[in-house]
Amino acid sequence: MSHAHTRPAAITAAILSLTALCGAALGQAAFPAVFVANNGNLRGSVSSLAVNPDTGDLTLIQDLVIGERLSSQPSIPGTNAYSISITPDGAFLATTHTTSSTTVEQVTIVAVAPDGTLSIARIFDTPDSPLDCAWLSNDLLAVTKTNLSVTNEVIVYRYDREDGIVTLIDRKPAGVFCSNITTSPDRQFLFANDSSGLAIRVFRVNANGTLTQVTMTGTGTYPLGMGVTPDGLRLFAGGGISSGGRAIIGYTFDPDNPGLTPLSPTPFDGLVSNPKEVIASPGGEFLAVGYSDGGVRMFRYDDEDGLLINIPPALIVGGRGELGNLATMRLHSGREVLLMADRDSPGGRGVISATITPTGELVQNGPKVDTGGISPNDLAAWVPPSDTCIADFNGDGGVDGQDVEAFFLAWEVGESAADVNQDGGVDGQDVEIFFLAWESGEC
């Protein structure tokens, strides 16, 4: 291939360092993985599972116990690992704990090794109750304060990896019952639900880690389990038992003039009672909706007709109340995978992996895998920037036009895999680094 151009020294150094990271990155799993918060009253833990990059099958790596007690003993902070989030560079997890405490709870930061094993890096306290968390960058973590007795909040902490110090940066009011937060793909905006207040707040994430509320939209329906599409332009949520008990709500989002505009005719009919979570497929074509009856159903939003179209059949994970949360990933082979937590169904607890077909159906990948923990609840998915190297983006062993196509498919929808410089955002710098690596044809 041509080497006629002259590379800037900084870009050359970035390519060399990132290429080395792709083979066996320090402080991140060197392969696709899913991490699970296990919400046991007697035993709280975080599990890591490897995802086969070709088939999507799962293999348990480790179950890291954070807190454990006997049933005769009082509650301790490290049990009930409830929510989990992973840093943009895949180096650290944060999991929140929701025990019987009514004052303070624990947040545990967990380090991820290249082989997917886990170790506790830091433990700190946060006000009761942290029902959700989300990394805003590699060092900024947002945590909810969910409490029926006082005004709820979103709290932002800074985690210094070198000295392990955690510093409170900001806290903003978040309504009556804020139990769910999520970010835009570029992590420039934070969305916070208020299910009791029937509202969604949008905060801008400032460069210094503080939050600025830019809008609050009344929903008329409980906004539960919010999911933002990969392009960052739509937000969906389940309606739980509100509005007839089958509602799914959807909004467009304009990052240039931040605001949520209802998709017509929101709320949509979710067909079955109690939709509790909505998550978009990696390519953005489909929505996976989790229900309190233990089922997961796929939908497609029709732009022209404004319809939410169901794609049967449903995948039944467990009985009522046994479905945990959902996560998605796109493997470098192009396979799109939906991951589902089974808290404790008659068929056994664990995580289920399913391929999302090009037409939106779900096909299970191998058997359900036990996490080793009690009551798997929340999931965090990780795909390294490349299974092999930056230039071979689709991981097929060659450097060709298919890698360009695979990279731009990921880049256009803001997938974390396209963040090849691992700065927490998907932008033009990633394009420059990818093409310099691709033109050289080197790994």
Any overview of this molecule?
There is one protein chain. The protein is mostly beta strands and 443 residues long. The chain has two domains: 9-23 and 388-440, no CATH class; 26-382, 7 Propeller (Methylamine Dehydrogenase, Chain H). 9% of the residues lie in helices and 43% in strands. It is built from three helices and 29 strands. The chain has helices at residues 9-24, 401-412, 428-440, and strands spanning 33-39, 43-51, 58-68, 81-86, 92-97, 104-112, 118-127, 133-135, 140-145, 153-159, 166-173, 181-183, 189-194, 199-205, 211-218, 224-228, 234-238, 247-253, 260-262, 268-269, 275-280, 287-291, 295-302, 307-316, 323-330, 336-342, 350-356, 362-364, 376-382. Strands 16, 17, 18, 19 and 20 form a five-stranded antiparallel beta sheet that branches. Strand 16 and strand 17 (234-238) form a beta hairpin. The model is unreliable at 1-25 (pLDDT under 50).
CATH topology heading of the largest domain: Methylamine Dehydrogenase, Chain H
Strand segment tally: 29
Please, what is the CATH homologous superfamily of the largest domain?
YVTN repeat-like/Quinoprotein amine dehydrogenase
What is the domain tally?
2
Task: Give the C-alpha Rg.
Answer: 21 Å
* Cα-to-Cα separation, first versus last residue: 14 Å
Helix content: under 10%
| Whole-number mean pLDDT | 90
CATH architecture descriptor text of the largest domain? 7 Propeller
Largest sheet: 5 strands, antiparallel
Structural class: mainly beta
Number of helices: 3
Write down the overall geometry. globular
Uncertain segments of ≥5 residues (pLDDT<50)?
Answer: 1-25
Under CATH at level 1, the class of the largest domain stands as: Mainly Beta
Strand content: 35-45%
